[in-house]
């Protein structure tokens, strides 16, 4: 076995001349001058050793599998040397001895049924041709070939079962992930709607509060102006009566004029304050309108950002699918 392992390592180095650390089907053909095997047989050996089907063999896969292959060939050769020629001409199959007079088609069909080949093979012609060729030209290798087929089809069936289990588990995970994404999407939509409503509500309440304060101030100024106007009318009336009266009331009339002038100054000051208040009200209304527009733009930007995030999540979901 140590000699066989050493030989297998030597064969791997012959195949991996570039030092890649693995060998391919083409690399395997370099053993043709070293072994009494045809290119087709080397291809079949490579397929047998490539259990994972990735198209390449690591040093461990090659050395372990090829060592086993060499040991089987040595054991087979020893058995052939020990058995009479008549016995080696008629090998035993895995479960039963086929007589020479039995139909080859029946034997092969029976073998394929026992192996369950129809579940994993679409076309049995290649296997059949190789089986017939071995039966005709190399009957002493037929039992080994059938044992090899048993192992291969068993591994293929196991791989198919594992694939089905993985597909089922993957479908369950995808369904659970889709459900989680849908839940997150619905929560995000509700959060966007809630924040938008709260934002608009706060902005509306603040604007209404500004408007009410300004209206109250304007109403107060208008009432004050109306009082001043009424007072001025009363004073003017009194002044007119005093001017048409007696001379002795001139001093009082002068005082009334002075009072009237003072009231006029108060009226002008109040009118100016009212004008300023109206201007301030207009400025505040414009500011409130501008703030409202800015908030609408902010709501639009927030909504657009959330839409982009939602689109990103949907793209990630598609990618994961």
From TrEMBL:
Coiled-coil segments: 149-294
UniProt keyword terms in alphabetical order: Calcium, Coiled coil, Metal-binding
InterPro entries: EF-hand-dom_pair (IPR011992), EF_Hand_1_Ca_BS (IPR018247), EF_hand_dom (IPR002048), FHA_dom (IPR000253)
Protein's name in the database: EFC4B protein
Residues annotated as domain EF-hand: 37-72
CDD domains linked: EFh
GO molecular function: calcium ion binding
Any single Pfam family the record assigns to this protein: EF-hand_7
Domain FHA: start-end pairs: 3-63
């Amino acid at each position: 076995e140590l000699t066989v392992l050493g030989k297998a390592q030597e064969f791997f180095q012959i195949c991996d001349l570039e030092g890649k650390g693995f060998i391919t089907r083409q690399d395997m053909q370099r053993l043709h001058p070293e072994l009494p095997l045809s290119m087709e047989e080397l291809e079949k050996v490579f397929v047998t050793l490539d259990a994972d089907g990735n198209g390449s063999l690591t040093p461990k896969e090659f050395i372990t599998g090829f060592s086993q292959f060499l040991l089987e060939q040595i054991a087979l050769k020893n058995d052939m040397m020990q058995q009479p020629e008549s016995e080696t001409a008629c090998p035993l199959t895995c479960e039963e001895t086929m007589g020479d007079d039995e139909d080859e088609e029946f034997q092969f069909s029976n073998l394929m049924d026992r192996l369950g080949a129809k579940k994993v093979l679409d076309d049995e012609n290649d296997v059949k041709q190789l089986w017939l060729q071995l039966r005709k030209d190399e009957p002493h290798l037929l039992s080994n070939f059938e044992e090899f087929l048993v192992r291969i089809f068993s591994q293929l069936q196991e791989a198919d079962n594992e694939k089905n289990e993985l597909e089922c588990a993957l479908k369950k995970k995808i369904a659970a992930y889709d459900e989680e994404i849908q839940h997150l999407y619905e929560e995000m939509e509700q959060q966007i709607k809630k924040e938008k409503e709260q934002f608009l509500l706060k902005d509306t309440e603040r604007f209404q509060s500004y408007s009410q304060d300004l209206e109250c101030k304007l109403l107060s100024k208008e009432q004050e102006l109306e009082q001043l106007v009424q007072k001025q009318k009363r004073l003017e009336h009194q002044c007119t009566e005093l001017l048409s009266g007696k001379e002795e009331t001139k001093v009082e009339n002068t005082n009334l004029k002075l009072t009237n002038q003072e009231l006029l100054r108060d009226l002008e000051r109040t009118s100016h304050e009212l004008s300023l208040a109206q201007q301030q009200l207009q400025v505040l209304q414009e500011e409130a309108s501008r703030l409202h527009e800015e908030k609408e733009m902010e709501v639009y930007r927030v909504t657009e950002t959330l839409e982009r995030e939602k689109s990103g999540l949907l793209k990630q979901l598609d990618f994961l699918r």
